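Quick one:
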Amino acid sequence: MAEGARLEKSGDLAAAAVVYRKIADKDPLDQEATGRLLIVYRKLKDYLEELAVINRVLAAYEEQGRARQAKWLRAHSKAAAAGTAVFQKLGGATVSGFGADPAVATLTRRRAIVERKISGKKGGKRIRPKDTVRKKEERQRQEATAEQRKREKRERQEAAAARRRQEAERREAEKAAVNKVKEAAAKAAREKAKPSLFVIALTYRAPLAEIDAAMAAHITFLDKHYEKEDFLVSGRQVPRTGGIILARGRDREAVERMMQADPLIKKKLATIEVVEFKASQMSKGLARLLA
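Output:
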């Protein structure tokens, strides 16, 4: 019923008639379905179909009345034999076989109107209902089939559009993932390209007299690595307990091996501690130097 009402509201009366007809064929006494079906046929001015529905419904009411009458007679056989009053109440010789249902009276009046409309067509020549009904049913089936195909086509188009959207979203997600990997790799490369700097702390392990005696060789060692741009700055600690060298290099192991050639370290006059760090900020001058 909901589907029929939707189609009727949208103006597709032929398709609505097909839906209501299926319900009415199963139960001609379904007043809601048959009522809407008759209204739709009336709007379509399909009086032959309307008449066919009315006749089926009236026949169903008559069959229902006969069944009730027979059931009553079986249950009250003695009372039924008492007189004709019982038969009249049940739809006997002087009472309509349809009983006194108001719906029956309404359908009977409508049938008379529809029959007059049909007989008045084509100069009073009566149209043969049977052949015309079959044609109407075939036309309605074709229209319903066409509407179903339209719906199926629309659903296929919507499904295809949804698949295209999903595919586009998948490609965008893959592209975003690739870009993310590239950005991470670029960031890692930038981090790797930053120079590793080292703070080398020398701690004296001998008297200053011995340190001063080896200082000329130590300065020669420093000059050598200044020329190679391994060292950036160096000097004594305050108080004079050792020295500090700011250096750069590939890694800690390389710097530690380089420092083993320092005369102070070779003669065990001092020990070293190496601290590696990545420069995240620096002055312009130092940045140019490191570049």
